[in-house]
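Data deposition worksheet. Section B asks for the primary sequence of the deposited chain exactly as it was used as input, without tags or linkers unless they were present during the calculation. Section C holds the resulting structure in token form. Section D is free text for depositor observations; keep each observation to a single sentence. Incomplete worksheets are returned to the depositor.
Section A, Depositor: J.P.
Section B:
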Amino acid sequence: MSSRLLTPARTAILATVALSTAACGSATAGSGSSGSAAASDSAGTVSITHAQGTTQVPVQPKKVAVLDMGALDSITSMGAGDSVKSLAKQGLPAFLQQYKAEKYANLGTMFEPDLEKLATDKPDLIVVGGRSAAKYKDLAKIAPTIDTTVSSKGDFFEGVKKVNTSLGQVFGKEAEVKAKLAAVDTKVAATKAKAAGAGTGLILMTSGGKVSAFGPQSRFGLIHTALGVKPTAAKMTEDRHGMAASFEYIKAANPGHLFVVDRDAAIGESGKAAKEVLDNALVKATPAGAGNKITYLDGQRWYVTGTGLDNLSAMVDEVAAGL
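Section C:
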């Protein structure tokens, strides 16, 4: 993984699925499209409105290339993993290690996928998101391509639901997706109830011995916006890559809980572990430090994967456990 790991998130998938008589083709609709109702057609295609347009894709595709870990997690979770034939293997999280097998073609990195190999392989569908979204136009020339990027702005969970509902339509797994999302909703409600009386929280990320803080509109902001953890009153610059934070800032923020992502561990880089970085008197003087309320989140889930069905459920579990 590169140090610039996440490209700026685009708009959340508006996705609702509409059947069309058109054959598989490239993206056509503009960013303002709201999508139309769904129904099947004799050609076996489905129209998906996503972060970068509307694309006709084959229903239940047999040969899929995946360039986003969240989408890979979702496709696996809903029981459609057999359709995956190629993927970007760099940075593959531990819980998706089955895709390291030789039978899955390696497309390189999410930032720079092997376009030549994809053109030769001729997949039925290419799925991008987040880090690979910038390559959408190039990939859409090779095969039908959908962008599963979910924005951290606005209602994050609604965006996640739309992304996964669309994937369920594509793979014929609507019932499975509906059940998984209902289970996540139940966990979210229970976590919000715990958060209501748990005090304030501050989200941190360590990387190369340095610390960044993240607010409600950041990539990790669902801790506040969806799960109900009250942010501290400390001033913060909202930025995709976080705001540089000193230990004095953390002490002044006076958080009741700290939620910490170790970026180096997440991407396999050597560096000082987050626990070592935060092992100092100023952090220990906060209510979070003094009360042993520091939760070290799984970086592969929070930093690398994000929006997958099973992954999202595990993320909610981690926050609930920290409360």
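Section D:
DSSP finds 13 helices and 14 strands in the chain.
The first helix runs from residue 69 to 77.
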